[in-house]
Design a protein that fits this description.
single chain, 190 residues, mainly beta, Porin, 10-stranded antiparallel barrel, 2 helices
């Protein structure tokens, strides 16, 4: 398990060297964290809606404080346009704060845009039914031009429906770029 965790982290750090995008306005419409909480089980499948696009997400608990996540969405029914987000979520021991690192891919016909999200999410309180969270994150478009990267604000509410089902509402916004993104997701823990 330790070798697996180490290799995942090395892969994500190596991937960050190749962040590059030519379509920043399209990426602004997609920018949101894939923040998931696994409580009782090691595996979670989710189906959701993000800015009028349907997506599927798969989350896997790697250890007690490390979760990996994969999200895939087809953006256009007429063109070959896919959005993929691969995330690692580091939880604090008491789950009050979480560090998230995501590698994102926007594939549009023959063009691939890559960027990262780096952020911190704070769980405001943790009762058994609802967990509201606030956070900030950066969209890293080009590692050589860090001053062009954008700060985003994030709100998330995770509501437990039953022992294995949860409902998520999330939103992100950026004051300088004037965008607002949202997602709604239903999850099944297995």
């Amino acid at each position: 398990m330790e070798l697996f965790k180490r290799n995942i982290i090395i892969l994500i750090l190596f991937s960050s060297l190749f962040c590059f995008t030519t379509n920043q306005s399209k990426i602004n419409k997609l920018s949101i964290l894939n923040y998931s909480l696994l409580n009782n089980y090691e595996f979670q499948v989710g189906f959701g809606l993000q800015n009028n696009n349907i997506y599927t997400s798969i989350n896997k608990m790697i250890s007690h404080n490390l979760t990996s996540s994969f999200k895939l969405s087809k953006l256009s029914s007429s063109d070959f346009e896919l959005f993929s987000q691969n995330s690692i979520i580091f939880n604090s021991d008491k789950r009050l704060w979480n560090f998230i690192m995501s590698i994102n891919y926007l594939i549009n016909e023959l063009e691939i845009n890559r960027w990262m999200n780096l952020g911190i999410v704070f769980n405001l309180f943790n009762n058994k039914k609802n967990i509201p969270s606030l956070g900030i994150y950066y969209d890293v478009f080009n590692i050589n031009k860090l001053f062009n990267n954008k700060l985003n604000y994030y709100f998330h509410l995770n509501s437990k429906i039953s022992d294995s089902y949860s409902f998520i509402i999330g939103s992100s916004f950026n004051f300088s770029e004037h965008f607002f993104n949202y997602n709604i997701e239903i999850n099944l823990e297995i």
